[in-house]
Amino acid sequence: MKTFCRVLSVILLLCIPLTAQEPRRLDIDEIVPVPTSGGTWIYGDVLFSHDWHIQKNVLTGNYRLLDGNSMQRSVGTFEECQKRLEEIQTEEGILPMSGSAVILLHGFVSNSVVMKTFAEYMKERKTHDYVYCMTYPSTMQSIFDHAVMLDSVVRNLPPTVKRIDFIGHSMGCIVIRRYMSGPLKKDWQLPENKAGQRVNFSPDKRIGRFMMLGPPNHGSIVAKVAIGKDPVRRRLMGSSGDELGLDWEKTEKSLGIPSCPFAIISGGRGDGIGFSPMIPGDDDGVVSTEGTKLHGAAYWLQFKVGHGEMLLTEEVFDTAIEFLKTGKIKGVR
Residue 215 burial (CB < 10 Å; 0-12/13-18/19+)? Predict the structure, then answer.
């Protein structure tokens, strides 16, 4: 009996922690990762690190950490998710990021899934060390709030990532433009004498080039007509719908011409009529051809594709990649 008690005492002593600090208790999803859709409607990305990303739920304000397979690995505050990410990277011996990155932003009433084909095309050709399809809740926030999320993504890329390029589709271009226009203060507007001019502002010195795909650079007739003043539609489409449509004049006051080199690809039929009878002149079914143009673009060119079709067209991909890589587009003046 004495021997048993002595053994039990030794075991108990070994179980007492050497410090007063209690070991961190793992959340259930850290032990058994939870599958997710990757965040399509109410989540927005705020940090990327290799294949991992932290997202914010805009309804609850909570954050979650997802791995490269969209498995939820932690939930809580941003700081808690970031700490867990750092622990995992240490445990798995993941090296720090370095090199170049490109961030692809989808459009209105859409999500990052539509950008995956383009992203995979870029990954196969190793155009950048990191290719990120950023998701943001396009119908749940204002364009300003989307830009704040983009700012978080860029700021959280480590200094060892030396170059950051952008590709935007549709409203994604407007989000990037707001991010690049001036300070992220909610009521900030361009000085009156700066309207239509290139801004002398760069939110991050690592920004390289910016390719716009089907951008509604002068607002959206479709948003203005299809959403209009109908309270149900406005509720469903959120403030971004109004900002592209009825409130475009106000929105435009916070959108400068990017200081970085940028180019524009427009869709359409090339016949002066376009795909949609709702839109005057040529159009891609959603945005007018003329409406994509913006003073200061290094290049503007049109492909005979629809608004969504351009995200599945290799010729568009190759043109965008060429511009991001060289700043030029062969055969275009």
Answer: buried
In whole angstroms, give the CA distance from residue 164 to residue 97: 13
**What are 90's two structure tokens?**
């240490």
pLDDT digits (tens, 9 = 90+) for 161-219: 999 999 999 999 999 999 999 999 999 999 887 767 789 999 999 999 999 999 999 99
- Please compute Rg for the chain using Cα positions: 24
pLDDT score for 22: 41
This prediction has a pTM of 0.89
Q: Among the listed ranges 27-36, 44-53, 76-85, 236-245, which one has the minimum average pLDDT value? A: 27-36
Interacting residues of 126 by C-beta distance below 8 A, sequence separation 6+: none
> Is residue 290 within 8 Å of 279, Cβ to Cβ?
no
The string of DSSP letters for 108-175 reads: TT--GGGGHHHHHHHHHTT-SSEEEEE---TTTS-HHHHHHHHHHHHHTS-TTEEEEEEEEETHHHHH
Q: Do 165 and 324 meet the contact criterion of CB atoms below 8 Å apart?
A: yes
For residue 72, report the phi and psi dihedrals to the nearest 5 degrees. Answer: -75, 125
Contact 166, 259 (CB under 8 A): no
Cα 110 to Cα 39, 139, 182, 290, distances in angstroms: 12, 9, 26, 23
DSSP 227: T
* Residue type for position 225: V
Q: Give pLDDT tens digits for 131-167.
A: 999 999 999 999 999 999 999 999 999 999 999 999 9
* Best CA proximity match to 302, nearest among 260, 276, 274: 274
Distance CA 146, CA 179 (A): 9
**Helical (H) or strand (E) element with 223:** helix 221-226
Amino acid at the residue 42: I
What CA–CA distance (Å, rounded) separates 165 from 132?
Answer: 10
